[in-house]
Amino acid sequence: QSALTQPASVSGSPGQSITISCSGTSSDVGRYNYVSWYQQHPGKAPKLMICDVSNRPSGVSNRFSGSKSGNTASLTISGLQAEDEADYYCSSYTSSTTLVFGGGTKLTVL
Amino acid sequence: QLQLQESGPGLVKPSETLSLTCTVSGGSISSSSYYWGWIRQPPGKGLEWIGSISYTGSTYYNPSLKSRVTISVDTSKNQFSLKLSSVTAADTAVYYCARQGGVGATGGSDYWGQGTLVTVSS
Questions:
Q1: pLDDT band at residue A66, thresholds of 50, 70 and 90?
Q2: Which residues of B touch A97 (CB under 8 A)?
């Protein structure tokens, strides 16, 4: 199975909004509403930020939102804060009953 | 508060079998609402799903690792385990265990262990 495609890096200034894309295929992102997004700070375990395309787990800031169009899912972070600087990964369930991750995106807050 | 903790050797020799156990505390592993998974991350690289198991023992594996991976569950100990055979340096990574929601491990992983670094070297 091929990894989902994410941009290697994105950046934004405090207070701005950024969007990270996650491109898959009709066998994963495009087929199921089972896309998740994770935030990972250096040396830490990933943290679930979005599940099922657009659902925020309890305790996750409403500055984080998810969406999907066709074979591409997106994570939007509004009102960027310094603490948002981290690596972000998307994942999707696939038609082969497996999970696949994206390559990860490094977010820099300028 | 649910907690997951990985345990096992931090150093494994090439061609040998990597064995890790994840102990779940603060909740029962025997829930039909969740799967229990292993994910790894080579140093400086991205996340890779290894496989998942239900408390009944139903498993799903990454096709690229399937021939070398066995995941098992011990409900009496509230643990699940990973065995990866014939390891090479490419298997050097931080290994995480995690709880996955949804039917058939379709949901996100909301609880993670802290991760354990396993180095493959002679």
A1: very high
A2: 60, 104
Cα Rg, chain A, nearest whole Å: 13
Q: How many residues are present in chain B? A: 122
Question: Best of B4, B109, B114, B117 to disrupt the A interface by mutation (most A CBs within 10 Å)?
Answer: B109
Is B77 a residue whose pLDDT tops 90?
yes
Alpha carbon distance B117, A82 (integer Å): 28
CA–CA separation, B122 and B120 (whole Å)? 7
With cut-offs at 50, 70 and 90, classify the pLDDT of residue B64.
very high
Residues in A closer than 8 angstroms to B47, CB to CB, are 38, 40, 46, 89, 91, 101, 104
Tokens 């898959």 map to which residue? A24
Per the CB < 8 A criterion, the answer to whether B80 and B88 are in contact is no
